[in-house]
Amino acid sequence: MAKVLILSGAGLSAESGISTFREADGLWEKHRVEDVCSAGCLDTNGEATRAFYDARRTDLKDKKPNHAHKVLVELKQKYPQEISILTQNIDDLFEKAGIKPQEIVHLHGFLPQLRCRECEEIYEIAYVKQAEFNHGACPKCFGELRPNIVFFGESAPLYEKLTSELNECDMIVVIGTSGNVLDVTYFAQLCDYSILNNLEPSSAIDDKYFTKVYYAKATEAIDTIAELIEEFLENA
Ligand code: NAD
Known about the structure:
Layout: E1 4-8, H1 10-14, E2 27-28, E3 31-32, H2 33-36, H3 41-44, H4 46-60, H5 67-78, E4 83-87, H6 93-96, E5 104-106, E6 109-116, E7 122-124, E8 145-149, H7 159-168, E9 171-175, H8 184-189, E10 193-198, E11 212-215, H9 218-235
Parallel strand pairs: 1-4, 1-9, 4-5, 9-10, 10-11
Antiparallel strand pairs: 2-3, 6-7, 6-8
Helix pairs in contact: 5-9
The structure holds nicotinamide-adenine-dinucleotide (NAD).
């Protein structure tokens, strides 16, 4: 049976009211990335960094998945072995649409979790501020906790999973990413069939390498994309 890799980015959640990163002139929610999202921030700018992620996490509470999240989760449930969903997003909108934790890979971490900087234990804290969880200390070793997010310049352990999925997949579907972090043009060249959906062309993506390109809102393009995925899987 053929394999399909679905790779999403901030654009997928944009219509749910979560700001994308690049479209805000290199700012993310009015913050300079290097101040609050880069390796070393926790040591040089800890208070502001924690406050930034606390705000993102509490903001997530009322956000709802959109039509595109729901269609992708339905597809995953229909083809559990054939479809893999990997996302650069740190929000929980796929989970709110019904996906189970083991059915999705959050390549850049997950906002509703904290991780101990000492023992690496991960804790689910839903939407509360970091300091409200066990006074900000690891319940196991009393080490310092941090958002379970991959900052720019840090290693991303789950890229190993991305590599193995890329080696196996026949089709790749890229939705809502500018390609500045992950080289999706290269990924498309590894697959027999590839689909790109963004709002507009990106200077970091060469769209001629994609079989189909849709410059449209994800919620508008998703039904056509889902049909193509099903067609591909049924005819493979
Ligand atoms: P990006 O902001 O660099 O690019 C967003 C892309 O989405 C653009 O190409 C744009 O054309 C497209 N887009 C915008 N609205 C869309 C819509 N309605 N439908 C379809 N496409 C749409 O995002 P990125 O490539 O994911 O990289 C940003 C980094 O910041 C990632 O590492 C990610 O982890 C992080 N981030 C995450 C979230 C989140 O979790 N929701 C939000 C912002 C940033």
